Amino acid sequence: MLEKILAISGKPGLYRLVSRGNRSLIVETLDSQKKRMPAFASDKVISLADIAMYTDAEEVPLRQVLKTIFENEGGKKTTVDYKKASAAELAAFMEKALPNYDRDHVYSADMKKLIQWYNILIDNGITDFDEPKAQ
Question: Is 134 among the domain residues?
């Protein structure tokens, strides 16, 4: 499922891939408005399935981090408010989600975006963070 959920650089929130146009992707916002718009080749578009987080040893796929948060939060939205959280609160949240995250490369802004994305996914009923089955 995460393969069809996209982040677009410079635009807030997350988007669902709806269709592929001639020179663009047609995406829909994952909010109550469900607004559709094109994403062009000049936009930096990345699938959540392709994102990983730095740790001290290796990169961990975002889906594993989201799954850990899902388990820690009991399948609900996070208890941490990313807009008001202090750096210490964000660091404590990350410690629970990914204990060996790389403190030099994972910034507070990254942690806030992770929390925001997780909450958007939960609001939209997207909770399947497992690896896709090989066909």
Answer: no
